[in-house]
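This section describes the prediction task in plain terms. A model, or a person checking by hand, is given the sequence of a single protein chain and must write out its three-dimensional structure as a string of tokens. No templates, partner chains or ligands are provided. The sample shown here is typical of the held-out split.
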Amino acid sequence: MRVLFVTLPEKSHLFCMTPIAWAMRAAGHEVRVASSPAFTDVIARTGMTAVGVGDDSNISSAMAQHRESQEVESVDWSELDPAKLTWERELERAQMGAWGFAYYNEPMIGDLVAFARHWRPDLVVWDPLTYAGALAATAVGAAHVRSMCFADVWAMKRQLFTKLRDEQPEDRREDPMADWLGAHADKLGAAFSEELITGQATLDPLPDRLSVPSDVRRIPVRFVPYNGPAVVPDWLAEPPARPRVCLSLGAANTERYGGDYVSKAAILEALADLDVEVVAALLPVQVQELDRVPDNARVVESVPLHALLPSCAALIHHGGFGSYATALVHGVPQLCVSTAVADQTLRGMGLQQAGAGLFLPHVQAGPQEIRDAVARLVSEPGFAANAASLRDEALDRPTPAQVVTELERFAEVAA
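The expected answer:
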């Protein structure tokens, strides 16, 4: 069959679905991966056939000018306790969400629908914020599923929002997401349905303890780390003499927001007197921000995280899903130092509650707090034991190759 993957032009989103795309291709299916034209080179380097749709005018261009946007309450989707939610705040969040999602998706909808009508996919797999994929599937009657690169706060927030909405007087029942997607569905000769927001099914890589329950159909799948093209350095062949701590702040904040939200130099200095070996896996531009490197630290560029983490006793990261899930499947205790954007608070707190890591909001992550947290992660055996338990749960999920059969059946039934 023909399988169309659709993603925003974000590496973390693409890399999470790449092993599933590989599995579909290895099973003999035709695969295409669609995104913005400037992102096609990144897609092609995964080994997949890329399709450029729309133009490159999306929200990413505005991010560096609005660094504070990661700290606005309405971009934090982690609060799922109904007792703490109000209609006014959830409506504001939905309005902000619909605006941002439209900004990301609008440039690609027309071309994506046109490509789908030409290529006629049997199945569309879309990242959970690329609603253009659901519209394209609707246009051609294809089955469609979301491929999660978050904890699924999106589906649960939608469920909670509609409950609050239905409790309002009829003249106050606003629904920004339904209005936006419904307008596009009308142009396709279709009607709005919740499937345009939450898919017909959802590929969920998180262990049940860390997943978000909701009423959507879930297909469990194992997270398989992919970090892009890379070469394993020779020094990784030697076991570390001391507990190894990896510092990785990802690429998104630097590339999209103009810089990280915590100081790499301050973190390295804070860990300088600990009996650990620190490996700072940084982008070239991040390396340039360091004035000096402490004696117990090694700064490296472009090291594949999935090759480095098996030798590590702890990982310090920015809350991104790729870093978080890669450490998860390798059983590495984590220190999440993150902003509150999207689901990052929920995932950080989930690890802490499971005893497999610690969470520090970036505004509370001073050098001493980070030093104390790392000292605990490498010295208290409970963190490693609990991280190993979560690793076993993560690895117990079906592999992408095993999920292919279920997706084949799903596409056949949905058709």
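For orientation: Residues 234-395 form a domain with the Rossmann fold fold (CATH 3.40.50.2000).
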